[in-house]
UniProtKB/TrEMBL annotation:
It comes from Neolewinella marina. This is TM2 domain-containing protein. GO terms for cellular component: membrane. The keyword Transcription does not apply. SUPFAM superfamilies: TPR-like. Keywords: Membrane, Transmembrane, Transmembrane helix.
Length: 262
């Protein structure tokens, strides 16, 4: 557990040496402070850091620097609210009536590795979940939801490159819930990094200069790299048509490429 008060004091007293960044586990920033300590610029930045830490909301600080602890507390609160709601619920919700003409969609069975990984993820066994999700991807590497969960787990571990790789794979294989990407609690660290901002500005693709993945064979022109809300909506509609079986995988890819080039 990192203390925002301790971080603030370190920043105000030893800020020029980057002690507060080392304390928060941000070794790269700490080394950067040390390299430029002679310029007194790190000292000035550290004073601002110290004031921010001391005045920052406790929950916001924990969300960024005590991610696992914050996620556990958040999950417990949701679980308590769930049990409280269902305790006073007079009757269980009824499923919608089935129509005679509607065919019940087929549900694909998850492989046992994914089932095990989901259970470990829910129990906060993040390392075990990563191992089982890897085995699941060995069975089928095109599982967009598994890649998304891997991105969340590596974001929790503050492994930016691996998290971005799995997030890009999730999008490549049909995960287009951009609202979830921008709001999911476990992606909070990843979204705070400059690499993610470059990834987002590049049309939710890893830039060519990133070591995590080589550039795409047909990159989008620079003037169209930023995805507008309209483009995102059109891509989401295409994904829905593919899920409903109206578009084939090849047709989906062709239409998506046309939208990105338009």
């Amino acid at each position: 557990m990192k203390s925002k008060t301790t971080a603030g004091i370190f920043a105000l007293v030893f800020g020029g040496l980057g002690v507060h960044r080392f304390y928060l586990g941000q070794k790269g920033l700490g080394i950067l402070y040390l390299l430029f300590v002679w310029t007194f610029i790190p000292t000035i930045i550290a004073m601002i850091d110290g004031i921010v830490f001391l005045t920052q909301d406790e929950d916001k600080f924990n969300r960024k620097y005590n991610t696992e602890y914050w996620a556990m507390q958040h999950a417990q609160q949701q679980q308590q609210q769930y049990h409280h709601h269902h305790h006073y619920q007079s009757s269980p919700p009824q499923p919608p009536p089935r129509t005679a003409y509607a065919e019940e969609p087929r549900r694909e069975k998850k492989d046992p590795f994914q089932v095990s990984a989901d259970r470990k993820y829910a129990d906060y066994d993040f390392e075990g979940a990563i191992q089982d999700y890897r085995r699941s991807l060995n069975v089928d590497p095109r599982q967009a939801d598994v890649h998304f969960k891997m991105a969340c787990l590596y974001s929790i571990h503050e492994d930016t490159d691996t998290a971005l790789y799995h997030l890009s794979q999730a999008l490549e294989h049909g995960y287009y819930d951009f609202d979830e990407i921008e709001k999911h609690d476990h992606l909070a660290f990843l979204r705070s990094t400059p690499d993610y901002q470059a990834f987002k500005s590049n049309g939710y693709r890893i830039p060519a200069t990133s070591p995590a993945e080589p550039a795409a064979a047909n990159p989008v022109p620079p003037d169209t790299l930023e995805l507008s809300d309209d483009l995102i909506t059109r891509i989401e509609r295409l994904a829905k048509l593919k899920e409903d079986g109206i578009l084939s995988e090849d047709a989906f890819r062709r239409e998506k490429a046309k939208i990105l080039r338009s």
